[in-house]
Structure formats: structure tokens, C-alpha cells
Design brief:
By secondary structure, this protein is of the alpha/beta class. The chain is about 50% helix and about 10% strand. It has a single domain (about 25-410), classed as Rossmann fold. The chain contains 19 helices and six strands. A hairpin with a 2-residue loop joins strand 1 (about 10-15) and strand 2 (about 20-25). The longest helix is centred in the first third of the chain and has 27 residues, at about 75-100.
Length: about 425
């Protein structure tokens, strides 16, 4: 049997102001088709399944496809990756619906008390989430589960779940193409991870925006109630809990910046949830988010405009803050919300964790304290190697201070410097 030729790779130098970095990506044919008809047909062919169940996700999908075609300026590799991403999410929906139909008990799975950590991207949500996840009393989602939430046939066997290996290989391939991303967010298959990956299956996340410049899609998602996407996310959490045979009494801890723009949908689907709101200097959150989006998207486009990205991210974060402030006053009962500042966790993480435990209603036991103490110095959670600035993206500290003056004043957020 003839051996399959290894794919050819190209190295491309990407400049950002006075700095440059090299990305390495496969050479692929031009013109990958990610039209709705093409990807639906491909997902059905791949799985041998046809029925998606209720499909309100199609509205999100159509706006996304138009935005990718009209705004993202995708190169050949970017088009291939977009096609693969869309097909994979549709295939997962088909497989999930097949499981729901064959095992209706999945959607009767009870879920324990839930706490969601919510804040702008890069505001310390990951650190708080990973600290709490070290307490063995909490349930949480792992990286491989949010990327591949639907069990495959081999998942039900005796050996390790093949989805873990699949996640490891995907992360290794991504970091080989652009190693800089290792300094922005650690990718570990079995580490705690945010639930945003489950919302990918409804095409309703800013993770998609990080992968390509699609501002029309992003604004649409921001201003459209995504209750259907969150209801589907709950189904997937039930699927994961059913597969793992979780104790239905154990509490859950989740986190995602996505909920800044979807607090209405979150509370409609999880009305009893407790919400920890994280607050950090917007100079840092905006600049770091720009850097994160830039470093992910440069693989798929050769026409990146850092100033256009900066203007969009500043607008997006400002609107997220405004929207969550508008909604939390009426949607979240006072006893279900707590405010935590990033600077306070850095200054005294034990004190802030005690506040969070008191809020959740759990004892900050000696065992929990020891578990969290072991993880408190986790370099990844602080993203110590990540370097970025507002000026790289055409922004200034004065502009950000003016945009967020009311927010900064309300929560007494200390300035971290330029």
C-alpha cells in the first residue's frame, strides 16, 4: 500500500508594530466550501445521521457564514479550518441527538448547585476557576470534554477515552503552528476548562471571534438572546454528567467571559445559579484580549488589521460591561451575586476564596485550603509570559479610562499601569 505523503508546510512572518513572530501552517488547496449546504451534507455523510433535533442554531450559523465570507479575509488554510470546525460541530450535534433519542434518561439527569465565574476576558476568571476546581467537592468540565463533549463508541469501552488523545493531538498541532499561544492560555487536555466550547455547538461564542475577524457576527450574538444556545449547553452538561455517572448532589463550578454578554440567557436556563463577578483594570483586559484574538487569528488570515481589531475589542468589552450591569440588577437576586476584584485575589487569594466559599455556602475546610494552596502559585493561571500593550492595537490608556470610568469607579478597580 502506498504511503500517504506528509503535508507540506509554509512559514510566514507576521508583524505587529515593531515585533514579528513566525507561524507555521500546512499548505492546502484554495477554495474550501463552508456554505451551509456543503457543511450540513458533509456532517451527515460523516456520521450517517440526519436529524439535528430542534435547530434554532441555524440562525447563528447563517450569520457566522456570511461574516466569515464578507469580513474575515480568510486565506486557504483559514477556509479549510473554518470548514472543518463547522462540520465537526454539526457532526457532534447529530451524534448528541442520536444519544438523546436512544437514551432519553440523559435529559433527566439531575445537576447539583451551580456557581458561574463571570468577567471580561483576561480578568482572572481562569485563575479563580482553577483554584476552586482543586477542591475535590466540586464538579467541573475538563478541556477534552468541552472540545469533544459527545462520547464515541470507543468511549464506552474499558480503556482510556479516545477523546483525551484527540484533544492532546489537537493542542500539540495548534501550538506547533504558533507557539506564542502557550503564553496566553495553557492547553492541557485534562485541565479544568470553561464551558464556552459547549456553546460552540450552537455557534454562539466569542471563541469563534478569536479565531477570525467577524465583527458582524460578534455584534449579532451580543444583541441576540441566546437562550436556545444555553438550553442546549445544559443538555450537553447533562450528557457529560450522565456519561461520568456524577453524583447529582455535588456542586459545580463553571466560568466563562461569554456570560458577560449572555447573562440573560444564563439566568433563564439556570435561575438558581450563583454568580461571581470578576473585575480587573480594563486597560489590561482590553489589551490582553486584543493580543489573544490576534495570536489565534493570524493563522487563518494574511490581512490582519491590528487597529481594526483594537477598535472592535474596545467596543465589545465596553458593551459587555454595560450589558451585564444593565441585566444583573433585575435578573440576578442579590443573594446570588458576589463581586471580586482581580487585584484582591493577587493581594490575598485566601481571603477572597474565603469570601467565595461563604457566598457559595461551603466550608473552606482545611482539606480545601491545602488543595487550593498547592495550586495558588500556578504560573499558567497568571499568564506570566504574556506580553501585550494597548498601543499595538491603536488604543491608548486615556481612551480606555474614559470608556470605562463609571465601571472603574463603581467597583473601585485599581489601575495596574500601562
Amino acid at each position: 500500500m502506498a504511503e500517504t505523503a506528509a503535508p507540506a508546510f509554509e512559514e510566514v512572518q507576521i508583524r505587529l508594530g515593531d515585533t514579528a513572530q513566525t507561524v507555521r501552517r500546512p499548505v492546502v488547496p484554495e477554495g474550501a466550501d463552508f456554505s451551509e449546504a456543503a457543511i450540513v451534507a458533509a456532517a451527515r455523510k460523516q456520521t450517517g445521521l440526519h436529524f439535528f433535533g430542534d435547530d434554532p442554531f441555524r440562525a447563528n450559523l447563517r450569520v457566522l457564514i456570511r461574516s466569515m465570507e464578507d469580513e474575515a479575509k480568510l486565506n486557504a488554510f483559514g477556509r479549510v479550518m473554518a470548514r472543518q470546525f463547522l462540520i465537526a460541530r454539526l457532526a457532534d450535534r447529530l451524534r448528541a441527538q442520536d444519544l438523546f433519542d436512544r437514551h432519553p434518561e440523559i435529559l433527566e439527569t439531575k445537576l447539583g448547585p451551580m456557581t458561574f465565574i463571570v468577567g471580561a476576558a483576561r480578568s482572572g476568571t481562569t485563575r479563580a476557576h482553577r483554584l476552586l476546581s482543586n477542591d475535590p467537592r466540586f464538579l467541573y468540565l475538563r478541556d477534552w470534554e468541552i472540545n469533544f463533549p459527545v462520547p464515541v463508541a470507543a468511549s464506552f469501552g474499558e480503556g482510556p477515552d479516545p477523546r483525551i488523545t484527540r484533544a492532546r493531538k489537537a493542542h500539540a498541532a495548534f501550538l506547533a503552528m504558533n507557539p506564542e499561544n502557550a503564553n496566553i492560555h495553557t492547553l492541557e487536555a485534562e485541565a479544568p476548562e470553561e464551558e464556552i466550547g459547549l456553546l460552540n455547538m450552537s455557534f454562539a461564542t466569542q471563541m469563534i471571534e478569536a479565531q477570525r475577524f467577524v465583527p458582524t457576527y460578534g455584534r449579532y450574538c451580543m444583541e441576540t438572546n441566546q437562550q436556545a444556545a444555553y438550553a442546549y449547553m445544559k443538555k450537553l452538561i447533562q450528557l457529560i454528567a450522565w456519561f461520568r455517572k456524577d453524583d447529582p448532589q455535588r456542586p459545580w463550578v463553571f466560568k466563562s467571559p461569554q456570560h458577560m454578554q449572555d447573562l440573560d440567557a444564563l439566568m433563564q436556563v439556570f435561575p438558581e445559579a450563583k454568580i461571581v463577578f470578576m473585575h480587573r483594570d480594563p486597560r489590561k483586559t482590553v489589551a490582553s484580549t486584543c493580543s489573544m484574538f490576534w495570536n489565534i487569528s493570524i493563522l487563518g488570515s494574511d490581512e490582519n488589521d491590528p487597529e481594526a481589531l483594537g477598535a472592535y475589542i474596545a467596543e465589545k468589552v465596553q458593551r459587555q460591561v454595560e450589558k451585564v450591569e444593565e441585566e444583573r440588577a433585575t435578573l440576578v437576586p442579590p443573594g446570588q451575586q458576589l463581586d471580586v476584584r482581580y487585584a484582591d485575589i493577587n493581594a490575598d487569594w485566601e481571603r477572597e476564596m474565603q469570601r467565595i466559599y461563604d457566598f457559595i455556602g461551603l466550608d473552606f475546610s482545611a482539606e480545601a485550603h491545602a488543595a487550593l494552596n498547592a495550586a495558588s502559585g500556578d504560573k499558567e493561571a497568571r499568564h506570566g509570559g504574556h506580553r501585550y500593550s494597548l498601543e499595538q492595537f491603536g488604543l491608548s490608556a486615556d481612551d480606555i479610562d474614559q470608556r470605562f470610568a463609571g465601571y472603574i469607579g463603581k467597583y473601585g478597580i485599581p489601575q495596574e499601569g500601562k
